[in-house]
Sequence to fold (487 residues):
Amino acid sequence: MKREKSLAPRGPQLAAPAGAALVIGSIAFAFLLGLLPWPVGWHWLVPDFAFLVLLYWNINEPHRAGLGVAFLLGLLVDAAQGVLFGLHALVYVIAAYLALSLRRRLEKFSPAAQALQLGPVFVGKEALVLLVGLAFGRIAIDWGELASGLLATLLWIPACLLFGRLGGRPVSVQASAGEEK
Amino acid sequence: MATAPQAHMFVREMGLPLRLALYLIACLILMGLDARYNTLHFLRSGIVSVLHPVQAGLARPFLHLEEAFAFFAVHAELLRENARLRENARRQGHALQAQDMLRAENAHLRGLLGLPQPAGFVGQPVEIVQAMSNPFARKVVIGSGSLQGLAAGWPVVDERGLVGQVTRVFPASSEVTLITSREQAVPVQVVRNGLRLIVSGSGQDRLLEVRFLDMHADLQDGDELVTSGLDGVYPPGIPVARVLRTEPPRHTPFARALCLPVAGVGQHRQLMVLQRQLAPAAATTTRSGAAATPPAAAGTRPADRP
Fold:
């Protein structure tokens, strides 16, 4: 008992890893959220919820949601939207790779600071979807779509708080640790 | 970021960049296959036959909500709409009677001239389940599929004109590509002078364009365009668009015309899919003759509709 106490970490409390059910369930829920009948004129503004949740778990639970999950989710989105198979899969895999390589750095920042750093990923993802579509010649390009990337960036903060609460991760501790530089 | 110094003692899995490369290659192969060949339809069909019912189920509560709001619509408004619809029905009844007479006369004249009877079309009402939310294709999903006898290629109309074409058919749902989609083209004819053109989608919501217009072509603002029926896909005479304005050639030898679609593309929930039905007289002609009819009739068609 004594020995255990001396070895106990003095830093921020460690969170238990989120369960597979939570990870897969939340991604599935976000995917269904995207399938809701959004108003027809406002599709350009609807953020990609599934992508947002995927990125969150890429960063916080990389062993549960890696490139493979990104790939499969991308294929599902392709089928649901009736576009070329592999288009969203390609973009999601690239974004997941970025998130997985940035993960160690992002862990130390507060949700708002994370959103600031992930903004280019969210907007870049929308741009990449448009550009890949352009390469395969099936497009009337509408740069208004990039706005949904910005909205997703803003949604990162509530998503962090929500999943932090659900996954038992103490968000406020991370936020205070973000000011170390 | 280097992945080598990880917490694992023995790293046996592939590095992140290598896995990324493998997935990227898989994606590119998939996209190539899907763009060039039709090999992935079974996969798409499998996924979609699960997804579309789920989607329809998700949309249902919102539909009920909409209906609940509609329930409280003002009484006077309903009365006004009812009067308007009755007026419409009367006007269309007159037009229909005249059309029946013309059709009978046309069939008689065609019989005299020995021309094959044009194919008839029957409508099948369908309902839009979902509008697709991607910028590449202006598409909607309808709640009928191969189980209801639909097939790819059939035209889709509303009460005013052409809306689109069925492009992918799944067991209980289908995708309809709207005429405003950029890759969609419809062969049309100007009502005023019989000039044949091809109208394409512009990729914007309420705009069509004639891309390669002869700069001396006789096309004026306000001209009505109807399907010519020469493609063998669309029945002749469905209103498609009205010319908004013509643009003189710039940098290219061709002029360009912008048109407004006549149908409420992307406005309704209910649509009609048209199914080709061979007329009895046409069924008696040879099967190869039926396929060859459109090009053979190309020369004669404008002459018999002055």
Q: What stands out?
A: Chain A has a mean pLDDT of 81.
